[in-house]
């Protein structure tokens, strides 16, 4: 299958990821940080090395400020639920994923938080000045996605981080789309909290993700339980990362995530960005003139994380995705992409969108074949 669904999860993974997971499971996969035997220590060292690799990748000063989670959703929920206090005000954008919008909605319904949404323009772009206008004395959190999972638009994160720092408001970055092909520097971008999945652009396996919390910030945990530390105490330890890492960690996954990041470092993030952009441009050039094709993504390298979203005439986008899968063996996602306000922003509430999301293993041949498939599908509908 030609896999163009990398925004959902990346596939395939680099061989080094498969190899390291297999080696871990065969050779030393004990419970990290629990027992004192050699295998447990080897496992704890592997976790610590993964933390160090991740912290270097995002310019995080202290690796212990990273807690492993099972995906980005868990990390986002920890921050949203763990920092909300009665009477607080939270600002988010219309381009956010439901992993942010749903917990926010619940806080709103319970009367805990007031939520303000900053609407993107017709391409989904967020203007930091619109965020500034909404800031109030009780604003406790600003949330923004690095890039939209619906159409790939990249947000002005550095400017938003600067604004948040100016007003001394914590800034939560959702790095689910773009981590691995967009350079993230938590210091330079003034990021207070960052949620990242391991299984998308970072090339790790599913069941991995993480949360960065700036030193000095305390966030109430979602889960409490065994951490391997302070075992005789009935209280949840308040030190990072133990505070947010109750229960046995996904060691094979974490080892795989580390290998994924090493693979990215080997290729160079800038080269990945350039390569994906070359493929994206080729796809765009190949389909932009096709009858009935309407494109919702921008094509500038600095404005798109690797997604081309389109519709064909007024066809149902899930139907197009189904034809691409069954007739052409091309994997894409159709319909609504867990971001209802983003569809409202882009005006695609009725049809949804067909999303082609590229990865670093896609080839020029994949793209040319996809262009041919789109041309054929469009010609059928134009009759
Ligand atoms: C922008 C964005 N945020 C958050 C998530 C949630 O990520 P995960 O599936 O790892 O929980 C996704 C998933 O597609 C996403 O695209």
What spatial form do the alpha-carbon principal axes imply?
A: globular
Q: What's the CATH topology name of the largest domain? A: Aspartate Aminotransferase, domain 2
CATH architecture of the largest domain: 3-Layer(aba) Sandwich
CATH superfamily membership of the largest domain, which one? Type I PLP-dependent aspartate aminotransferase-like (Major domain)
Low-pLDDT residue intervals, each spanning 5 or more residues = none
Could you tell me which ligands this complex binds, including any ions or cofactors? pyridoxal-5'-phosphate
**Overall pLDDT confidence:** 97
Structure in words:
This protein has 383 residues and is α/β, with parallel strands linked by helices. The protein folds into two domains: 2-10 and 268-382, Alpha-Beta Complex (Aspartate Aminotransferase, domain 1); 15-266, Type I PLP-dependent aspartate aminotransferase-like (Major domain) (Aspartate Aminotransferase, domain 2, 3-Layer(aba) Sandwich), CATH 3.40.640. The protein is 38% helix and 14% strand. The protein is built from eleven helices and twelve strands. It has helices at residues 15-27, 38-57, 72-83, 98-109, 128-134, 157-166, 251-267, 269-287, 317-326, 340-346, 364-382; strands at 2-3, 66-69, 88-93, 113-118, 139-145, 171-174, 193-197, 209-213, 293-295, 307-312, 330-331, 354-357. The chain has a seven-stranded mixed sheet with strand order 2-8-7-6-5-3-4, sandwiched between helices. Strands 9-10-12 form a three-stranded antiparallel sheet. It has a two-stranded parallel sheet with strand order 1-11. Helix 6 (157-166) links the parallel strand 5 (139-145) and strand 6 (171-174). Helix 1 (15-27) runs antiparallel to helix 7 (251-267), helix 3 (72-83) packs parallel to helix 4 (98-109) and helix 8 (269-287) runs parallel beside helix 11. The protein is globular, with a radius of gyration of 21 Å. The structure holds pyridoxal-5'-phosphate. Pyridoxal-5'-phosphate binds next to helix 3.
